[in-house]
Description:
319 residues, alpha/beta, 6-stranded parallel β-sheet, 11 helices
Amino acid sequence: MRAFQIASFSEKAALADVAEPTPKVGEVLLNIAACGLNFADLLMAKGTYQDTPEPPFTLGMEVCGTVIGHGPGVSQPAIGTRVAVFGGQGGLAEQGVFPAALCRPVPETMDDQTAAGFMVAYGTSHLALSRRAHLQAGETLLVLGAAGGVGLTAVEIGKAMGATVIAVARGADKLAVAKAAGADHLIDSDTDDIKSAVKALGGADVVYDPVGGDPFKAALGACNREARVIVIGFASGDVPQIPANIILVKNITVIGFYWGGYLAFAPQALTDSLADLMEMHAQGKLAPHISHVLPLDQSADAMELMRARKSTGKVVVMP
């Protein structure tokens, strides 16, 4: 079968012919219909992601596919069931093996492309805003990188939770996408001073930050007293240092959040969150945005769309 693999960190990922996988104990074999890409895939390709496996390995963290085989001791999900699963790797291929316990049946109301790009982005924002930041209706939520894969879902979920949402993104086109997702106020990070603009809108009670760097510093300066700042990632490439004097004076809480980490210590939190999100989607409360869909042989192009920040929402590859 074909798979988009990292042979070594000194080489670029490339499409390769590899042996079809065999499911082991606790695993299922999927015929992969779609794979959602994440910024973490870019880090993994360089060997800098916190959960990067040793090469060779196949990129692609989350997929939608149909169960076509069981490993020893596995009977569910049944053969023929369409499922979504976060496997951490192995998605950019025609087939893949994944833990059966992590597979979730996909409702008929959700297509393959949506299901493949749904778990990480929506799961991250839902759990971060509800479990970690305790966002309340009537509060002001500031979302950095608001047109990106996770940022856009934070806009949408924050609005659904009753917050006033301030979206920060680069350029009019990306801000238009954030506005369509429910943002109340828009700030162009290319031309506007983020700190001044947010303070003029009354400041932020919760900050959702997948960007880091200077935007983090600006957002911290625009926080209200007892604000919560959720650190999601560092798409800017700059991991900011947190000035303790600022968080002390304003009683600000800085919260770290790694969605995939819950698999190790609280997997039920992910399962419950995803169940809530699936129900919200079935009720028409969520409208996932996919800007690009490409075939497997254009996986390198799909990765470049994210690296060059030319995508909005999700990029999906369909083997």
